Amino acid sequence: MAWFYSARWPEIGPPYTQERFDGIWACASLLHVLPSAFPDVASRLANALRPGGAWYLSFKLGVGVRTVAGRLFVDHTAESLRTALSNLPLRMVETWTSEDARPGRGGEHWLNAVVLKRQPNRGRCTWACFGPV
């Protein structure tokens, strides 16, 4: 059985912060989060993922912050997104670009990414053999 939840990013807190979800779909939603707020929002979402969980994100392809018709947009490249997520227990497994499919949006491009939450580090198991030399 699958369960779906919908929340606004300020609402992402308990009970969502306890490795509750196998996946997060953030399609064209986090591009409106200020860069100064993004580390907190991304951390909350990463904490909500179970180890091994997948997170899809998409942003307009580009660099910087802009305002269009009074709406904030934060654009990313694969490298800038990788940097923005670098302090979290995530591994970027795939990025790709796509053209906007909405009518009248030809020429606009999106950055798409899938990241996985790392498994907890269980340490290394080292064996030692003792016997006659």
- Number of E-state strands: 6
Structural class: mainly beta
Uncertain regions spanning at least 5 consecutive residues: 124-133
Strand content: 35-45%
The overall average pLDDT, rounded, is: 84
The topology string of helices and strands comes to: EHEEEHEE
CATH-scheme architecture: 3-Layer(aba) Sandwich
Strand order of the largest sheet: 1-2-6-5
**What is the class in the CATH system?**
Alpha Beta
Largest sheet: 4 strands, mixed
By DSSP (H or I, 4+ residues per run), the number of helices equals 2
Total separate domains:
1
Shape: globular
> How far apart are the first and last residues' alpha carbons, in Å?
58 Å
Find the CATH superfamily: Vaccinia Virus protein VP39
The CATH topology label is Rossmann fold
What would the keywords be for this entry?
2 helices, globular, Rossmann fold, mainly beta, two-stranded antiparallel sheet, four-stranded mixed sheet
Tell me what you see in this structure.
It is a single chain. By secondary structure, this protein is mainly beta. It has one domain (9-117): Rossmann fold (3-Layer(aba) Sandwich). Helices cover 14% and strands 35% of the residues. The strands form two sheets. Strands 1-2-6-5 form a four-stranded mixed β-sheet. It has a two-stranded antiparallel sheet with strand order 3-4. The termini are far apart. 14% of the residues are buried.
